[in-house]
Amino acid sequence: MFAELTRETGQNTYSMISMLSLAFEGMGSFCSRQKPYSEADAEENEQAAEIERRIAQETKAEQHIHKLLLLGAGESGKSTIFKQIKLLFQTGFDEAELRSYTSVIHANVYQTIKILYDGAKELGQNESDSSKYVVSIENKEIGEKLSAIGSRLDYPYLTKDIAHEIKTLWKDAAIQETYARGNILQVPDCAQYFMENLERLSEADYVPTKEDVLYARVRTTGVVEIQFSPVGESRKSGEVYRLYDVGGQRNERRKWIHLFEGVTAVIFCAAISEYDQMLFEDETKNRMMETKELFDWVLKQACFEKTSFMLFLNKFDIFEKKVQKVPLNVCEWFKDYQPKASGKHEVEHAYEFVKKKFEELYFQSTKPDCVDRVFKIYRTTALDQKLVKKTFKLVDETLRRRNLIEAGLL
Amino acid sequence: MPQYQQPPSWRLEGGGQILDLETAVKDGILGGGAGGCGLGSATCEKVDLKKMIEELEPVEDVPSVFICPISLEPMVDPVTLCTGQTYERFNILKWLSMGHLTCPTTMQELWDDAVTPNRTLHQLIHAWFSQRYLRFKKRSEDVQGRAAELLETLKKVKGQARVQALKELQKMAVDHSSVQKTVADYGGVALLTSLLGPFTSHAVGSEAIGILVNLSLDSEAKVNLMQPAKISLVVDMLNEGTIDTKINCTRLIEMLMGEKDFRSEIVSSLSLLAGLMRLAKDRRHPNGTWTGLSLLKTICSHERVRGLIVSVGAVSQLVELLPNLSPECLELALHILDDLSTIPEGRVALKDCPRTIPNAVRLLMRVSESCTQYALSILWAVCKLAPDECASLAVEAGLAAKLLLVIQSGCSPELKQRSAELLKLCSLNYTATLFISKCKLTRTIQ
């Protein structure tokens, strides 16, 4: 027992007491009074020592953990990036986790079709060329039924029959016209993908694929975190990162402030495809303007003076297609945009324009003494796993270099 | 580096067999082939020797007996005077033709003005340089071969192997100019350019740029490099890299700007301009300062970008920097500020910075005429903008005395004219006597 006791490091008082107790033990009756006291005390001290040691260890370990924060407006792709990181650097999703997304995906399907059907009705009433938004008579019944389902709190399982009905309605000309006007409604970006895969989604033993999970849309509320370590080529253990994902809607942002201390890098997600869409929580506000103001606010936070900023200009795949049909000028922030060419060159030109705007915003919002913080812009499509992996590799390299520079080693 | 083993004897182009130096010196014999080296081959050997000396320039440890005492250069056609001293034929003939009849080194009077070709020495010089030349050529070939190998490797490997190959190639390109040609011949420029893209890691990008910047790039290559994604990468590396990387990136952009179809949008990047300012302000690396300022000056010549330069706060930063700059950098910085003073935002920024006037006044007539010209132009712009507040500040800083100096100096007439106008502008708010006292005339006279 004595040997065990002496193995405890730095516990001088404790070893002294143990030595004393042993000394007293040898003194016969004199120490029989001491024994119970010193044992109880010794146990307490042992526990206290153990706790203190654990705290010291964890604090030391914490210092090597880099805190990454995913920020951005609602539906900017933060959670998708979060899922991608999970897939890339952790064990990914096991079958149980994949199955847990089935209800979410089905819910997305019901929500989408309801939004489209209700939207068609609305456009049919308000628009001048209302006839093209009128759903055909056969499909109207389906539409009403689905709309009713969609407004319930829990949705039924997506059976083959219902899926078939949804598919029919989706193919209706009026619904397609409504979908083309999707920007003024709150149609989620996953709409087309799920609609095209309805057969598969409605299988009896349907288990969502990784891609399905990435497309699934749930409004994040609260904060979620994962810890991971991107393993490099050399297979040495690299940096340890802890990634936090938050809700982007306005009412969620008050929870952000609790996370702002000690952040290594902020990954700010901005969906560049939403320059013609309105907020979910406020249909009078343009989403791009909201993102602009939010980014500005985040940049000016005092606690981020030394924090690196990685701006992910996300949803490039949707941007690519949209920019050829909808000019950038519809967004007030981009009103001075002048199209140059057409086709692929136009896309590049538009993207460079948006990038410059964000760069301008960064420099306007940054005080002169903060200009030394790292600021990099990345073009991303969060759904593309290869792209996210490549992008994250660059982010990791930048942060590691930054670390070395700060330590004076570079 | 592979060791070049010198064989005991070898054949030369002229056909003469040369013994190694030790043997030649020891025995004084130059081998069988020497007889065949008549006048004809002496001439052709001379040409070869000249070429070798040129290609090997600068050679360091040439034996002193090979050097002509008149020109201090290795002798190509050594001739000996009657005094026994040897000189380069051309030089000694020139000396003699100028009417001197003495030996230049011994100062003895010449009793015989004949010059005798010193064949022995010639052979020795030839042998010595040949040896060096062959070694040089072999090393060059090795290096070129290795460079070609590396380029092939680069087409195949990725990751760390790629970085290593690039590192080796860069070192070679810097040390050996022949490698630059090899890289160009094997399509290295296109290959390296293709490595640069939005997903290029810093390690790969910085090495590739380090190689490209040492090559001469043709028009096509430059246009290729001007793609926005590649420029973004260069700008990122300029902001994040080591000082060498920063300088390489800056130099590369400057090379691209020389291209005739260059559009100013390419450098209209706030990140680039902020990065250049950061480079210029870095006191630890003066060569970085010069490179950064040089590019900024080139960018400033594009009027459209001037507004952006002002918006990153360059004006006050440059003004603050002025007292600590070397003369070359000072000229660049003042040139930039002068260019910026041509736009309204630039003028306002100059006026708002409290150190503009004192620093500019201090620089008048201090460094060079062009610096004075720029400083004067800046002061003019500022005083014109806000005569009431600036003129008095300038006078308080001792402007009047300096302007009088300029007018009295040997500067160009336009400069003097400008000074006179500025003097007049500043004196408007003062009475004559008060102004004269401000001019501190006694000090100028002193």
From TrEMBL, chain A:
GO MF annotation, one: G-protein beta/gamma-subunit complex binding
Keyword Ligase found: no
Ligand binding (GTP): 75-80, 189, 214-220, 245-249, 314-317, 382
CDD domains recorded: G-alpha (cd00066)
Signal peptide: none
Obligatory cofactor(s): Mg(2+)
Localisation: Cell membrane
GO annotation, cellular component aspect: cytoplasm; heterotrimeric G-protein complex
Alphabetically ordered keywords of this record: Cell membrane, GTP-binding, Hydrolase, Lipoprotein, Magnesium, Membrane, Metal-binding, Myristate, Nucleotide-binding, Palmitate, Transducer
GO biological process annotation, one example: adenylate cyclase-modulating G protein-coupled receptor signaling pathway
Major localization class: membrane
Residues noted as binding Mg(2+) in the record, renumbered to the chain: S79, T220
Complex and partners: G proteins are composed of 3 units; alpha, beta and gamma. The alpha chain contains the guanine nucleotide binding site.
Domains: entry comment: The helical domain is required for self-activation.
Official protein name in the record: Guanine nucleotide-binding protein alpha subunit
Taxonomic lineage of the native organism: Eukaryota, Viridiplantae, Streptophyta, Embryophyta, Tracheophyta
Recorded name of the encoding gene: LOC103716295
Automatic annotation (TrEMBL), chain B:
Domain U-box span(s) in chain numbering: 61-135
Assigned EC number: 2.3.2.27
Coiled coil: none
GO molecular function terms attached to this record: ubiquitin protein ligase activity
CDD domains from the UniProt entry: RING-Ubox_PUB
Catalytic activity as recorded in UniProt: S-ubiquitinyl-[E2 ubiquitin-conjugating enzyme]-L-cysteine + [acceptor protein]-L-lysine = [E2 ubiquitin-conjugating enzyme]-L-cysteine + N(6)-ubiquitinyl-[acceptor protein]-L-lysine
SMART domains in the cross-refs: Ubox (SM00504)
Designated name of the protein: U-box domain-containing protein
Classification of source organism: Eukaryota, Viridiplantae, Streptophyta, Embryophyta, Tracheophyta
